[in-house]
Write a structure and sequence with these properties.
There is one protein chain. By secondary structure, the chain is α+β, with helices and mostly antiparallel strands. The chain has a single domain, classed as Alpha-Beta Plaits, CATH 3.30.70. About 30% of the residues lie in helices and about 40% in strands. The chain is elongated, with a radius of gyration of 14 Å.
Length: about 100
C-alpha cells in the first residue's frame, strides 16, 4: 500500500464538498481537504484567472484508477485537472489509518 494524494480543482464550494463527501463515503478517499485558491491558466487561446477550490484527497495508489473515474463522472468541468503525488515519509500510524479507511 502506497499512500497518495489526488488533487483536482472545482468552481464552487458546493461542488467541492459534494465530490469530497461522495469519495469519502464510497471509501475511495480516507480524507478530503478543500482550500480556496486563485488559478491562472490558458484555456481556448486566452489566459483566464478564476477563484477555485482545490480538493486534495488522501487515498492509495491502488485506488487511483477508481478515484480518477469517479472524479471524471462527477466533475462539471469539460477538462478537470486530476493528478496525484506519492506521500513520502508518512507517519506509519497515519498511513495505516488511510489504508483502513479506503477500499
Amino acid at each position: 500500500m502506497k499512500p497518495i494524494a489526488v488533487v483536482t480543482t472545482l468552481g464552487s464550494r458546493a461542488e467541492a464538498e459534494t465530490l469530497a463527501r461522495t469519495l469519502v463515503e464510497r471509501r475511495l478517499a480516507a480524507c478530503a481537504q478543500i482550500s480556496e485558491i486563485t488559478s491562472l491558466y490558458r484555456w481556448k487561446g486566452a489566459v483566464q484567472q478564476e477563484p477555485e477550490l482545490r480538493l486534495l484527497l488522501k487515498t492509495t495508489d491502488a485506488l487511483y484508477p477508481a478515484v480518477e473515474q469517479a472524479i471524471r463522472e462527477l466533475h462539471s468541468y469539460e477538462l478537470p485537472a486530476i493528478h496525484a503525488f506519492a506521500l513520502e515519509h508518512v507517519f506509519p500510524a497515519y498511513a495505516a489509518w488511510i489504508e483502513e479507511n479506503v477500499g
